[in-house]
Amino acid sequence: MFRRIHSVLGLPLAALLVVAALSGAALSLVPVVDRARVPAIPAGTSVAALAEAVAARHRSVTGIVRRPSGAVTVAFDDGEARGVEIVDPATGRSLAPFRPSQAVRTLTQLHRAFLAGDAGRIGAALAASLMLALSATGLHMLARRQGGWTALLRRPRGGLAQRWHAELGRFAALGLMVSSVTGLWMAAEGFDLLPAGGTAPAAVAASGGAPLPVGSLDLLRRVALADLDALTFPDPADPADVYVLRSSAGEASIDPATGRVLAFAPTTTLDRASRLVAALHTGRGAWALGLVLGLCAASTPVLAGTGLAIWLRRRSARGRRPANLPLRAADTVILVGSEGNTTWGFAACLHDALTRAGHRVHTAPMNALSPAHGAADRLLILAATAGDGAAPASASRFMDRLAAVAGSPPVAVLGFGDRTFPHFCGFAREVADALDRKGWPRLMPPAWIDRQSAQGFAQWGRDLGRALGHGRDLVLAHASPVPPTAPYTLVGRDDYDIASATPVAVLRLAPADGGETPPFRAGDLLGILAPSTEVPRSYSLATSSEDGVLEICVRRHAGGLCSGFLHGLPIGGSVRAFIRANPEFRPAPGRAPLVLVGAGTGIGPLIGFVRANRARRPIHLYWGGRRPESDYLYARELAEHLAAGRLTALRTAFSRQPGGGYVQDRLAADAALVREQVHRGGQVLVCGGRSMAQAVRRVLDGAVQPLGLDVTTLRSRRRYAEDVY
Fold first, then answer.
1. Which of 16, 329, 408, 544 is most buried, by the most CB atoms less than 10 A from its CB?
2. Model-level pTM greater than 0.85?
3. Alpha helix stretches (DSSP H) within 283-440
């Protein structure tokens, strides 16, 4: 619901919001400029002192005003010369004629009314309402996506547009909400929708005696100039006229002959609230706060642009929705719970595979669950998890509807989530438990997919094929949309273990024809399309943009189309590839220790992190290979990094030599050292095969248990990350 509100409000009215925000941001600079050019009011200066000084210079003073900018102006009438001047509040000396800025006035009208009168003022109020709704719903969605309000300040995840949107959104949301609420208050005041702020002093008449010197009037001596709003002088031609003093305390009428206060109307609570609202919204009298609010407003065009990019990407990620058979004609029903539409791509792949296998398939959102679904031959539920365990948008009503469904169709639950959240696949697990309590038989045990793993989905398909009694695997080859590719040329290579059936090659690629690559870092992914294939194979990069080449480690696998193609690629040969950022797998900034764990070609991004360690932060590398004489990847370079201090310690394990072991064995032997690095705030990064990573997690759980930690907690704090395959 919040996402729909956010999109429906933000997308069509983005231009209106941007105009209101940018004009507000520009106006936030006005108090800063005023503060620089307007003399400050000295502490202790009274209204009487300034009034006496300016009265001595002019035949007749009609009023003194302290402007919202902080400037003090005096209106005078000297017969042939009359006007308004800015004065020095300390001396009363004239500084310059007062001329309101036409540019500021126009900008203010643009902000308040879009230069369109009352209709524009209504539009500005609408813009403030929209900004308030967008800020509130955006903050709620970000907290949900981050895993709860307590995780709101964690580093956002996702693509470049998502990260910028989240970073700017959480910086600006509170400021935009303050500006929106105060703007709505001021609009309500402008349309007289708020109660009257108080009553004016009663009509009074002066005693008519000879006026006292203005500097001697007691109330004016007691009121600080910094508290003044305006002082209106009596008309010299009218003996019954009085001084009218408006200050933060209220409005007073003063007899010019006696100095006695004839009437007083104190400032009400509503008046004080309006003053505070005006200061918060305009920054007048609070220039630093105004500047912060202006910066928040200035982020609006970027938020609008990144929001549009996210929306367009989400629409493209919806992919093809399957062509359905009617529910009553289907033997297999796929129900989909998706937050960002990517789960629908997996559902379409499953739908097609089942149809090819001879099944009659109906696919629908989980929210479409009805009593009729209880008669299905089987239900396959693909459920994503939003944030830290919440139901996704298309499954928000599933649990309520489940109670009304009779029957007991066999069911299989496949959850999609992110292991870096403590409640990995939390919603899918809730669904599986609810179906168990309802007594629906399991077609197969629930399974969980980490970060949309195509390999995990393919394995689940093989298991499903056997559960359906096909006697063969159900082939699920899901591929995310492929970004635009560019040509790259092989410029160098190092080959290892060439006598084995699974040799390793370190390949270095450069843009063809002197082209340029987008910025990238070690740990980002290079997606390569082998000839005659549509599904890219991703390899972790061992280099960064400044290295000038893209370096990857590739092990040749039997029947592997891409690995076979790359191993056969000659120097000068060309590939088509794209770079995809992988911000979840990279060292956190700072000097806290790193524990890097890898096996085989998993050393690729890890050595990239070591290469980039110019600050010489502590890095402990654990790496496992087969034989030191044949596949000790980067042996010479690692020794150089040790000598140069980029690498603190190196522990290797070679499984096929006498007395050898695996990398997790080395990690277990160094449990105390690893625990010390974690205790010092260290981060653990693991790259390699899935079984190796599972073993490393078990060892690390035991190592950090005395600290009251485990891998799940470290993940949630972004201190443990994996790049596994």
1. 544
2. no
3. 287-298, 300-317, 342-356, 398-402, 426-438
